[in-house]
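[Help] Beginner question about ligand-bound structures

Sorry if this is basic. My supervisor gave me a protein sequence and a SMILES string for zinc ion and asked me to "get the holo structure". I don't really know what that means in practice or what format the answer should be in. Inputs are pasted below exactly as I got them.
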Amino acid sequence: MSERTRVVWDPSFTRYDFGRWHPMSPVRLELTARLCSDLGLFALDDVDVVSAAPASDDLLRTVHGEEYVAAVKTASADPHRADEQYGLGTDDDPAFRGMHEAAARIVGGTVDTALAIWRGEARHGVNFCGGMHHAKRDTAAGFCVYNDAAVAIQALLDQGCERVAYIDLDVHHGDGTEAAFWDDPRVLTLSVHESGRTLFPGTGYPDELGGPGAEGSAVNLALPAGIGDAGWLRAVAAVAPPLVRAFAPQVLITQHGCDTHALDPLGNLTVSVDAQAVAAALVHDLAHEVSEGRWLALGGGGYEVVDVVPRTWAQLVAIAVRQPLERGRAVPESWRRHVEELTGRPAPRTMSDGVSAGYEPWSGGYDPADPVDRAVLATRRAAFPLHGLDPEFD
Ligand SMILES: [Zn+2]
Ligand SMILES: [Zn+2]
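Answer (accepted):
No worries, everyone starts somewhere. Holo just means with the ligand present. The predicted complex, written as structure tokens, is below.
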């Protein structure tokens, strides 16, 4: 198998643009790519930076309904004809000219990379433009039009892959990806998110476990609002490794929405850039342990587009290209100048938030009165026995 890492990028991905007042500004992608490039990550010998063509209608229809794809194309050609019945032309998903091609290109990048990993042409892949986890079979939702993660998972299954694990670290529940494989025991979807009691989309509780014949294939960890690095990392580390080891996937796909960060305007967690890098390293190690390194990492949410998204996803790319950044690594001066000229805002000076991002592992014991431990225990009690695991000790 090749040791290469494939990163999906070219500036055409910034055409996924809901307009000036929408929180998902494509500037976040441009600044991420430029930061990766200025750090030298795109120029490494074993890294391929590749573009992608929009996914075909046939490929989209492996996950999405035919009428929905037609509705997206209609809205894409004439935004005034957007149909709210399909979640199009709403505040969250306003229609824009070229929306179909822009959304389908994200799918193309994620599917191409997943299949390159499956064929052994790359060991790892990153599509930070992807991770559109709220898109459902027949509706756009939560800034997502087509679910690139779901189409890629389905493409792997259609190529003969027998088990895919998907870990969703976005602050929001990964509801669309979960729904696509609700009844499919070949796909484990694990979502760790802020509780639906305080955040969109209002779902993702521990008792949501998958359909008949696929019980345990969906796993949800709903965290209390306000928690930071120690609680978030403890939770991720208490569920993801044991479940993924037990499931033994052939490919690991992870979604790295960075709206968990303290500065994110939509979520209510207080996670740092550093903790997200720790989580990225954890899932990277897990892929080497369980799936021969076959790992595809995706972006997702993230609405603090200067201080948070570029640094978080550049750290993710650095891990995927085997050049993890040393603590306190300076942000390249060229990138800082570009940010300040483009946005008129001061750019961060280092790649770190200057925190330790440590956590206590579950194996050291738990406190049944602690809100994080109660959330973790609820998920472990609901899901672990379905995988032959002990909820308290594994
Ligand atoms: Zn690796
Ligand atoms: Zn999100």
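A couple of things worth pointing out: Residues 127 and 298 are 5 Å apart (CA to CA). Residues 170-172, 257, 259, 300-301 surround zinc ion (ligand 2) (CB under 6 Å). Feel free to follow up in the thread.
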